[in-house]
Amino acid sequence: KVDSEAIKAIDGVMGLVEDAEYLEVVLGPGVVNKVIVEFSKLTGVAAGDASEDDVVSAAKDNKAAQKAKYENKPVQRFLKKIANIFVPLLPGIISAGLINGIINVINFSTGKAYANEWWFAAIWTMGWALFAYLPVLAGENAAKEFGDSRVLGAMAGALSIANAGMPLLASKTVDGVATRLVHLPFSLPTVAFKEGAFIVASSDLFNAAAGGMIGAIICAIFFAFLEKNLHKVMPSVLDTFLTPLCTVIIGVIGSVLILQPAGAWLTQAIFFVLQFFYDKLGVFGAYLLGSTFLPLVSVGLHQALTPIHVMLNNPEGPTQGINYLLPLLMMAGGGQVGAGLAILFKTKNKRVKKYLTESIPVGMLGIGEPLMYAVTLPLGKPFITACLGSGIGSVIAYLFHLGTVSQGVSGLFGLLIVQPGNQVFYLLAMLLAYAAGFALTWFFGVDEDRINDVFGE
């Protein structure tokens, strides 16, 4: 029997990854080099044969160590589930966002000259359809993550789609005036965030779109909770029929009266926080967002921001489909590339130079994990200077009011999703993030003794 706690308590052990079939002790790169030497003495296997000495394996080991610190925490597990809801949807979100951005440019520049062309309308429909029905897909994936039948999750998500055929939205038109026919049993508080202020009112009419993506996910999670618990108490002979029926009936009542309104409030609160950082804090808020994003990436929490990016890229949302947050965050990769370049030019350590020559090019293309997990994070100081340098690029992105029409790519590939016409400004912001990360790391982040201690001389 393995004493996991005793192993974790050993000095130099960064984490423990346990699986049904194996147990992996995660060590830092400086420690693992020393351990390899001792194991080579015990086994007779040459140290060079015991480990794959490349940036991929180093990054993999350090990533496992970093995430082992947090993976068993409830908040981390919950946010990972939220991220998993959207990861399968990213291909559609990216393509639909790009389509909507291109369509908007063409419509604006041509005065909608192609709007009635069938092929143009067909492509436009694809961009519209994804965001129109995204709550259904998100609800389905939420059900999968939280243990519900996927179709019931999709039904929960459908509550967030405003469709004229929805019975809850039934209306009649008299003398050109539409009157809603279905009223809730009591008025519910409603909120809207417009022009920097909350507008609070009340209404007894159901608003399908109010909860948005957040409401769809909350309702789907509630459906999952209901179904799992009903399975426990329902007699086996009735389980197949009554459990899904009761889940839907109880779930829809709770969703319409409580969860959808709660989702609406939470959605508006998110917009308030973003507006506060962007408009009220200005360049300071931009710097804060850009300089604190890499720590989120290091533990995988950045993926929990995906639903926020989806909301911002929704053409029907308050920003009309333009995401002004993402360009600020994408500068984090630029600061890290600059830090890597500073180490590359200043250090004499051959191993870290090898890691850097392999990881910097892909980092420039927006894949920063090898550089972060293999070099900057283990060294410590370069990770901090990379974060500080990233904030400079974010300030420039803020000053140019950069926005994206989609998500899913970063680095130089971010040029593909930046609002058309702003590519030069995006490139300038990224280059300044490189420069700031380079300068700060060159003067404050390169410690040759630390590099040799971590990577060996």
From TrEMBL:
PROSITE patterns for the chain: PTS_EIIC_TYPE_1 (PS51103)
The keyword Cell inner membrane is annotated on this UniProt entry: no
GO terms, molecular function: protein-N(PI)-phosphohistidine-sugar phosphotransferase activity; protein-phosphocysteine-N-acetylmuramate phosphotransferase system transporter activity
Localization: Cell membrane
GO biological process: phosphoenolpyruvate-dependent sugar phosphotransferase system
Membrane topology: Multi-pass membrane protein
Transmembrane segments: 82-106, 118-139, 205-225, 237-256, 285-304, 324-344, 356-375, 395-418, 425-445
GO CC field: plasma membrane
Pfam families registered for this protein in UniProt: PTS_EIIC
InterPro entries: PTS_EIIC, PTS_EIIC_1, PTS_Sugar-Specific_Components
Domain PTS EIIC type-1 residues, every copy: 80-457
Protein keywords: Cell membrane, Membrane, Phosphotransferase system, Sugar transport, Transmembrane, Transmembrane helix, Transport
Protein name, per record: PTS transporter subunit EIIC
